[in-house]
Write a structure and sequence with these properties.
The protein is built from 2 helices and 47 strands.
Length: 585
């Protein structure tokens, strides 16, 4: 190691210190030096309101740790009940301080609620308030939290003003807005994942559950939300792209258009959603998905739509407000509606790959725009259990292998597309159960199948084998490869074996199954591989189809019995030429 002493080393140290100072100054000046994030635990003298203030100001408030950078407020999983407003900010009262910094609220199952004894609105202004507000440049990530019973003009649970909002595993329940966004109103970018909007309401306007301008909502539920205007579950507005992916949107209600979803001046993308049981109360505007008020564009693929209880309902309606809307629908099941697709004025609908099920009037064009439908089928989707709201496909479904697109690459449940020669229409990709059962028996009857797989006969006896094949899966199997090395069988039989069907393979199909002369004990095994006989080449746009097959084995044993010695008292006399045989058993 080299050591330096004296003034030289001091000068060197000074230069290094100066460099460090200059570099540090540069990083601070241009924002490269970031504060380390803080965890702020609520409890023990630190209230939720103080925790938000600490995060915003990066200083201590109440008994809370000072915020620092992007902070995480940690709740203890209890219920935080608010009875009076904390502030009046951006149009409404708010139960908690505005979030103006980058904040994550980690709830651990906690509930933040406005006192459940308070109605909406209340006589006292201070008792009418939303729960949370996020204002630019703030952003909020809500994790594992329930927001309940908020009340405001815009966004009863949350109002996000030109700011980022994300929800993960959270529940927005029974919040009310008089105008827009019963659960949440967001004019910034929203990301919702694995969350639920339940029983939220707008009294006069749109977006009973969620009203938003840009972002994506996926793997979430919208249930029992209602709008006094349009969009019982969701209102989509603004120029930003909005994505609804693999959601369940059901039993929502709107007074006007769009019982489930309404778009105005928006671009929406709907993939892999199941939409059912929604209702519009206005008799002239009964559409589950509606476009209007301002020109909107909707791209939808692999969705399943099932009508609600009201008669005269429509799946998708466009141009209701004389707007030049455009809809592109692909690979969608439309079930139980009075009208499937309705276009008014200059609005247009282009559909490709539809399955109509019990739809009285599949299309109705009432304007100059027009409706174009190709690759449409009519018949039953064979839902698994529609009475229990299970709209997955079962084996007889006419939706199977009839889609025109394999995108998205996975379905609502995350199963890969395609599973067959083509993808399936709707939100669900049917995965067949491919199983068989085989039994092998042996006997001495040339004209039938024996009931046992073990037999003892005299040497030189002729026996006959039988293979019994049962299809315990849910697709028809057509090719059956049979292999029995001892009998020298290696062949493929072609016949249809439907679900739950049974077939017997005897010497009439394979001559090697009998007669077989037994001269020594023998044990042999049959292997049968059955398939649907389908293969799909790999291509740039498709995944190779899984070859549907199943294999089963069974063993039969035939033994011989040698002549037995007679007792001494029964020994033949000399010159007795009679032959004594063993008994057959």
């Amino acid at each position: 190691m080299r050591y330096t002493t004296g003034l030289g080393s001091c000068a060197s140290l000074l230069r290094r210190s100066l460099v460090v100072f200059i570099v540090s100054a540069i990083f601070i000046r241009f924002g490269y030096l970031q504060a380390e994030a803080a965890n702020i635990a609520v409890g023990g003298g630190c209230s939720l309101a103080d925790a938000i203030t600490s995060a915003n100001t990066e200083s201590t408030a109440g008994g809370c740790t000072a915020g620092s950078g992007a902070d995480t407020i940690v709740l203890t999983g209890t219920t935080y009940s608010l009875s009076v407003a904390d502030n009046a900010y951006l149009l409404d009262n708010n139960g908690l301080p505005p979030i103006t910094s980058t904040v994550t609220i980690s709830g651990n199952g906690a509930t933040i609620q406005r006192d459940l004894n308070l109605g909406c609105p209340t006589a006292l202004v201070t008792e009418t308030f939303r729960l949370l507000i996020v204002d630019n440049p703030g952003s909020l990530a809500l994790k594992d939290v329930t927001l309940q019973n908020g009340c405001a003009q815009f966004g009863g649970g949350i109002y996000a003003s030109n700011s980022s909002l994300s929800l993960l595993n959270s529940h927005i329940v029974s919040n009310t807005a008089t105008q827009y966004g019963g659960g949440i109103y967001a004019s910034g970018v929203v990301t919702v994942t694995q969350s639920a909007f339940i029983s939220n309401t707008t009294l006069l306007q749109d977006g009973g559950g969620l009203f938003f301008s840009a972002g994506r909502v996926e793997n979430s539920d919208f249930h029992l939300n209602s709008a006094g205007g349009e969009g019982g579950a969701l209102g989509l507005s603004g120029l930003g792209d909005k994505y609804l992916l693999s959601n369940q949107i059901y039993e929502n209600r709107a007074v006007e258009n769009g019982a489930a979803i309404h778009l105005q001046g928006a671009v929406g993308h709907l993939d892999n959603n199941v939409i059912y049981g929604n209702e519009v109360t206005a008799p002239e505007e009964r559409a589950d998905i509606g476009l209007g008020a301002a020109p909107a564009t909707l791209f939808g693929q692999h969705n399943t739509m099932v009508s609600g209880a009201f008669t005269g309902t429509t799946a998708i309606a466009v141009g209701l407000d004389n707007t030049r809307d455009r809809v592109f629908v692909t690979d969608t099941i439309i079930s139980g509606y009075q009208f499937g697709l309705v276009s008014l004025h200059d609005a247009t609908i282009v559909a490709n790959g539809l399955l109509w099920d019990n739809v009285v009037s599949p299309t109705m064009n009432l304007g100059a725009g027009g409706i174009t439908v190709t690759n449409a089928f009519t018949g039953s989707p064979a839902f698994v259990a529609p009475a229990a709201n299970n709209y997955h496909l079962s084996a007889p479904s006419l939706a199977i292998n009839r889609a025109v697109s394999n995108l998205p690459a996975t379905d609502f449940d995350g199963d890969a597309r395609p599973q067959g020669v083509a993808s399936d229409i709707g939100f669900d990709e049917f995965i067949p159960t491919v199983t068989i059962e085989v039994s092998k028996t042996v006997g001495t009857d040339a004209n039938g199948c024996a009931s046992t797989d073990s037999l003892t006969v005299e040497s030189g006896t002729a026996v006959f084998y039988c293979f019994t094949l049962h299809n315990s899966g849910d697709i028809t199997l057509t090719q059956h490869a049979v292999q029995d090395e001892v009998l020298g069988v290696q062949t493929t039989l072609s016949f249809d074996l439907g679900p739950s069907a049974t077939a017997q393979i005897t010497r009439s199909l394979i001559s090697a199954l009998g007669p077989v002369t037994i001269t020594a004990p023998v044990t042999n095994t049959v292997v049968i591989t059955s398939s649907d006989g389908i293969t799909t080449p790999v291509s740039a746009l498709r995944v190779a189809q899984v070859f549907a097959s199943a294999t089963a084995t069974d063993t039969a044993t035939v033994d011989t019995e040698a002549p037995t010695d007679l007792p001494t008292t029964e020994q033949p006399e000399q010159g007795d030429n009679r032959l004594y045989l063993p008994s057959l058993h």
